[in-house]
Amino acid sequence: MIQLAKGKLTFDINECKGCGLCVEVCPKKILELNEQTINVKGIHPVSVIDMDQCIACGNCGIMCPDAVITVEKV
Amino acid sequence: MSKVLMKGNEAIAEAALRADVDAFFGYPITPQNEIPEYLARELPKKGKLFLQSESELSAMNMVMGASAAGKRVLTSSSGPGLCLKQEAISSMALTRLPAVVVNVVRSGPGMGDLAPAQEDYWQAGNGAYRIPKLLPASVQEAVEMTYEAFDIADQYRIPVLVLADGMIGQMMEGVDFNKLPQRRENLPEKDWRMAGTNEKGHWNHMTLHPNMTLLKATSILENEIYPEIEKNECKVEIVDVKDADIVLVAYGSASRMSKSVMIDMEGSEIKLGLIRPKTAWPYPYDAFDEIGSNCKAVIVPEMNIIGQMIDDVRIGAKGRWPVYHVGNDSKSTLNPEFIMNKINEVWEEVK
Amino acid sequence: MSQVVYKRADSLTKVPFTFCPGCTHGIIHHVVAACIDELGVKGDTISVSSVGCGGMNPPFWDTDSIYSMHGRAPANATGIKRMNPDKFVFTYQGDGDLASIGTAEIVHAAHRGEKISVIFVNNTTYGMTGGQMAPTTLAGQKTTTSPYGRDADHCGNPIRMSEMLATIDGAKFIERVSVDTPANIRKAKKAIKRSFECQLKGLGFSMVEVLSTCPTNWGQSPSDSLKWLRDNMMPYYPLGNFKDYE
To answer: Does B336 lie in the same domain as B199?
Structure first.
């Protein structure tokens, strides 16, 4: 069975400006701007819908203009 | 034989070399080209940098960079070039960066004239600052002032202007390099220089924001730095003002003309005195308090038409005597004959 | 055992970026900082900032940094690098700074082969001052000072700085990149690193032009802005290398 990489994401949530670029570039479509929360900026910040699907490609990390997302391969 | 016959510009360049200048950036403009030409030849011999830039504007910004890197830097130009330098001079004055700027003054804007002039007295960039301005009246003085300017710049972290008129730059006189001022000791360390955190152990962000607001920076300059400069760096020559009927106030070549008129008029009924500012800022306002009770008028010979230093003279005079300007006319730059005529004309009014 | 795939670069301070949401200046800063990290030159770096949104960056650099006057960053950088030839000196400039008021400075820095690295951020707009026309504004593009669309008859067609500077001998590495997709960001990082290596090897002047967006002044979302970049800017400003070294 092919073992895909598994990723772990951590967020510096108060730095998120809600630009949405990370959501766009995630190949697994597991990121969203979570309307259930607000950060100190008053923004709906990024959050993960299903961490198990993360393949640690790093796209979200490098796309974020504020380096909100740290991506690790586990 | 310790005196050497040198052209003003070349002597100024040599003075900078002896002050251990690290770099010269500049652009050709009459009547100061001997300065870059001399340094183009001599700086590489000492392993120091000569770089001709694409404009005076760019040269002054290179000066800003090299000064920010903690080095001793020189640039030179003439009137129109100084206009172009103002942007970076303003920035350096308010960012507290040292450098020496030599202005060998000619008249008018770019397509004005090449005749020597004293028309750049008001060196106003934009922003609330002052910079020391030195006024040599001989090649020897130009040498001593240029040499000392580097120390003044480093001591107070400020750009220093040497304002020589075109005659001083072009004339040849004997210079004694053994008579240079003492190098100042205990100049502050430049731990703010741009050199990387490896070298210094810390970084500096060379900008007024956000480490310091503009108001705070100018407040420090006004309340701490400028009073020190005013206390220590004001220089003036005062000649025979106690008994004088008329006092001339002049700097640079205009002061030489004034002195020659004083010699020519010795023995006449008009007793003449002279105040010769050697610094335009700090200006020697106190010198006017030495003028005696005989004085009936003050005349300000300047190599210009509109009169510039005359404003400072009026401040120093405090209304005690009428103040007159004598300068160029429509055909000729100021000369001793104009000064003598003015003295006689004024005398008729005030005697 | 986890392995970091992406984290914020070390050469930056912790000061949050003041750029607008989704602004490519943020992306570019992270790429530049990562290159400085990876080349190990952080302790010898002097950043020369400029006038423009991107130029307001000294607080973000955990290195020496100096503000230059508008357009004059290459001249400041020349002074600093010539005095400290063993340090790493780079400028970060926008359209107005580099392609308008600073054209003499950038041309002559390239002409003299100054060993500095330039990051030129091209977003066809004067962002900081509210969206006026830039020398890089596209024909027909509306800005606050070209409200009817840039008219080439009136004020010319946009200027291609990379192509122009590549004709100069002293320029040893010139490349145009984009940061509109993760793939392009990775390519941009390669080019920027190679540009920095050009300086570290002492070869001469290097510049990377980065196609960028200005969502705020374009009046578009960050995502739509990137699409606009792809559809409109890339045809006129082709990506690629214009000067390379061995």
So the answer is: no
CB contact under 8 A, C79 and B73: yes
Contact B66 C80 (CB under 8 A): yes
| Contact criterion met (CB below 8 Å) for B76 and B166 | no
The total domain count for chain B is 2
Q: Is there a single domain that holds both residue B106 and residue B243?
A: no
Kindly state whether residues B171 and B25 are assigned to the same domain: yes
Compute the nearest-CA separation of C67 from chain B (Å): 6
Question: In this predicted complex, what is the ipTM?
Answer: 0.94
- B201/B286 same-domain check: no
CA distances from B178 to A33, B8, B138, C53 (A): 76, 17, 16, 53
**Does residue B141 sit in the same domain as residue B217?**
yes
Q: Give the gap in angstroms from C-alpha B209 to the nearest C-alpha of chain C.
A: 9
Outline where DSSP puts E strands in C140-204: 171-178
Strand partners, A72: A8, C4
How many beta-carbon pairs below 8 A join chains B and C? 129
Task: State chain A's maximal CA–CA distance in angstroms.
Answer: 44
Residues of C numbered 46-105 whose beta carbons fall under 8 angstroms of chain B's beta carbons: which are they? 46, 48-49, 58-59, 61-69, 72, 75-84, 87-88, 104-105
Q: Which residue range is the domain that position B322 belongs to? A: 236-350
Same domain, yes or no: B195 and B262: no
The residues near C118 (Cβ < 8 Å, ≥ 6 apart) are: C73, C74, C90, C91, C93, C98, C106, C109, C205, C206, C207, C208
Test the C interface: residue of B52, B205, B211 with most C CBs within 10 Å = B205
Q: Which chains touch A (3 or more CB pairs under 8 A)?
A: C
Q: Which domains does chain A have, with CATH numbers?
A: 7-73 (3.30.70.20)
Q: Where are the domains of chain C?
A: 24-243
**Do B299 and B113 meet the contact criterion of CB atoms below 8 Å apart?**
no
| Same domain as B22, residue B147 | yes
Residue from C42, C61, C82, C103 to probe the interface with B (highest B Cβ count within 10 Å): C82
Report the CATH number at residue B342.
3.40.50.920
- Asked if C239 contacts C211 with a C-beta cutoff of 8 angstroms, the reply is yes
Same structural domain, B153 and B253 = no
Domain end call among B209, B232, B255: B232
For C24-243, CATH number?
A: 3.40.50.970
Print pLDDT tens along chain B (351 aa).
Answer: 589 999 999 999 999 999 999 999 999 988 999 999 999 999 999 999 999 999 999 999 999 999 999 999 999 999 888 889 998 998 999 889 999 999 998 877 766 677 888 878 887 556 678 999 999 999 999 999 999 999 999 999 999 999 998 999 999 999 999 999 999 999 999 999 999 999 999 999 987 655 677 888 888 899 999 999 999 999 999 999 999 999 999 999 999 999 999 999 999 999 999 999 999 999 999 999 999 999 999 999 999 998 999 999 999 999 999 999 999 998 999 999 999 999 999 999 998
Question: Considering only CB atoms, which chain A residues are within 8 Å of C178?
Answer: none
